[in-house]
Amino acid sequence: MNLKVNLTSKVPLYQQLNERLLLAIITGNLKKGDHLPSIRNLASQTNLNLHTVHKSYKELQKSGIITIKPPSKAIVIVDSGEAISISLQQISIRIEHIIIESSILGINEIYLRQMFEGVLQKYYNSVK
Known about the structure:
The chain has five helices and two strands; from the N terminus they run αααββαα. It is mainly alpha-helical and 128 residues long. The protein is elongated and about 50 Å long. It starts with 12 loop residues before the first helix and ends with a helix.
């Protein structure tokens, strides 16, 4: 498995690793029942700290993506369709957190929509 993380990104390393593993499941590179590398092996492959990989695995376990069985065997427990559904749920939750935070800060709906649309345009225009 060849997973790369961006060490200069503002996105936490464990979160980048989660995203890469989730993408591998969604694209079928990892399938239900597949074993993930040990924490030590994945840390070595990605040049990450053991604790970073452990945190990533724990987050994926909490999300219901993998299970961790002693001694240190992480196994994919969802197929690509289930992974997509879980990803969409997580995105929805993050959007809801942004809306709540914006409300607390007094940002009105119109301004929030403008911010969101600006980010969408910036992202989708740069991808094309």
